[in-house]
Fold:
Amino acid sequence: MSAYIARRLGTTVLVAVGISIAVFMIIRLIPGDPARVMLGIHADASRIATLRTRLGLDQPIPVQYGMWIAGAIRGDLGQSVLTGQPVSEAIVQRLPVSFSLAGGALLIALLIALPAGIFAAVRRQSWGASSITVLSQIGVAIPDFWLGIMLILVFGEWLRLLPPSGYVSPGDGLLLWLRHLALPTLSIGLISGAILTRFVRSSMLEVLGEEYVKVARSKGVREVRVITRHTLRNALIPILTVTGMQLAYLLSGVVVIEVVFALPGLGRLAFDAVARRDYPMLQGAVLVIAISFALINLAVDILYAYIDPRIKY
Structure:
């Protein structure tokens, strides 16, 4: 196991280096002079030259990358061109919002997907299984931002049970924090739950047809033990893969939900940086998002080896 984890860690480090190069180069492939784009077409030449020197844009590309990656290793991702705030500080402030949103949505998705998917696979001929299949297909087809708007209208405007937008930290009150997160986490958690339900059902159906499951049942093993020990554990690998992908998406790809609910998360930070042409902020946010993807994949791979020891060989 330790050798497998060491190899995966080494691969993740190489992936992180490749990600940093890709992020650095893509930002610089944007047409035009980045300094002029940031300051606007009416900026005078002296201000543009000052900004180019400040950002290191007057240096060769390899030197620029070396300066940037050296700072990133120290936790220094530069400063916002517009506000002067350190990029690392802005990202650290936004991460708790994104983590809260992603974690809550994934929890809702798993609470829906695991029991619903298992039931739909075990009782696949029942009307309940058919209903779950239909509802999951509808859930996959519904855009998360539309569902979010509907939840705002129903629970935020008509019933006035939950705040329609905004965010407060847990330090301001745990119940208030949960109330502000309820609608955005539901809007994406329900959609993710529908997606995961389909994968849980298909993975369980595939394993339920295996010979060792039939043998276990023929020996009189209790159905609960057949499902939990012999079926679910062997069906977990594809489920973990999709769950990891959903977590990565929830952590970084819910920009629209953060905009709809006015949440100051990492996705919203990247969105605002694009709109304001704040390239240092955008570069830092995209790097953190991409590294998060790599770390989530690493965690999923390690869980693979724990679930199925054959993988470590």
Residues 252 and 289 are 6 Å apart (CA to CA). The chain has two domains: 2-73, 93-312. The chain has a mean pLDDT of 84. Residues 2-73 form one domain.
